[in-house]
Amino acid sequence: MQKGIIYGPVASRRLGRSLGINLMPTGYKACSYNCVYCHYGSTKVKTDRMEGLVEDLPSVEQVEAALATALASGVDPEYITFSGNGEPTLHPDFAEIVEVVDRLRDRLAPQAKTCVLSNATGLDRPAVVAALQMLDLRVLKLDVGTEQAWRVVNRPATGLQFARLLTGLQAVRDWVLQAVLFQGSISNVEPEELEQWIRRLGELRPAAAQIYTVDRPPADGTLARVPVSLLQEIAARAGKETGIPVQVYSGSVGAKSPGLASSAAASEKRGPKKEKA
After folding, report:
1. Which among 9, 33, 131, 266 is least surrounded, fewest beta carbons within 10 Å?
2. Peptide bond into 227 cis (omega under 30)
3. Are 204 and 165 in contact (CB under 8 A)?
4. pTM for the complete prediction?
């Protein structure tokens, strides 16, 4: 668990030097999902509405002060990234915080890009969608292709609907899909599951996709890593069937495989082009 508002910079496989912003509580995990693979463990408070938790969330002013202090200290991030202990877009003031972060970045770290790592459950709010478009990079999660698998793998909060999630993803422009793949007692790399996920990828048409596997101990200890060779096969197949660039990120920082070599030029054009592995 992150213990403050700002953390890092961390060495990210996808983003290089990433300065994290945690908009969730620091004493417990609050999220709209309780994913079986989450390295933060089980979700203590599972909800898609956090207005009742505002006393445990950082205020706009606190985020502004913490980020200003971090950037003034001489850190030199490649990305300033909304992530942390849960789903950042569920913060009631997320849109206002994005505006504040953009202003601070322009003034104190103009070389840095802004990013969100999101599970996309906040996309039913127009203000959240508009705020995401202000960021340089939008990385949105979809680990499976069917509602049944979604409820097993991501274990969403009561009231969330898979159809609503897909509608929200379709409302975002120029985004990158991310998926965590794993095997074990629960698996999303079985042939039928992969077929459904690839079909959904083709329907949603993100600019690019990123796939990787579990690295740190997951919430469900029965899960296991997917070999890089299989990830590469999946990326190649998904790219071939959908025409969407799919990148593989292996366990070590900086270890990236393009997955679909013929799509390298398209990935550079349409994907997270400012990102460094």
Report:
1. 266
2. no
3. no
4. 0.88
- Bridge partners for 80 per DSSP: 19, 114
H or E, element range at 65:
helix 60-72
Element (H, E) at 43: none
Q: Which residues of 155-164 are buried (b: 16+ CB within 10 A; e: fewer)?
A: bbbeebebee
Q: What is the DSSP string of 136-188?
A: SEEEEE---SSHHHHHHHT-PPTT--HHHHHHHHHT-SS-EEEEEE-EESS-S
Q: pLDDT tens across 185-233, in order?
A: 999 999 999 999 999 999 999 999 999 999 889 999 999 999 999 999 9
- Sorted by sequence, the CB contacts under 8 Å of residue 55 that are 6+ apart come out as none
The mean predicted confidence, pLDDT, of the chain is 90
In this structure, are residues 94 and 124 in contact, taking their beta carbons and an 8 Å threshold?
no
For Cα atoms 30, 32, 36, give the angle at the middle one, nearest 5 degrees.
90
Phi, psi of 247 (to 5 degrees): -110, 140
H/E run at residue 190: none
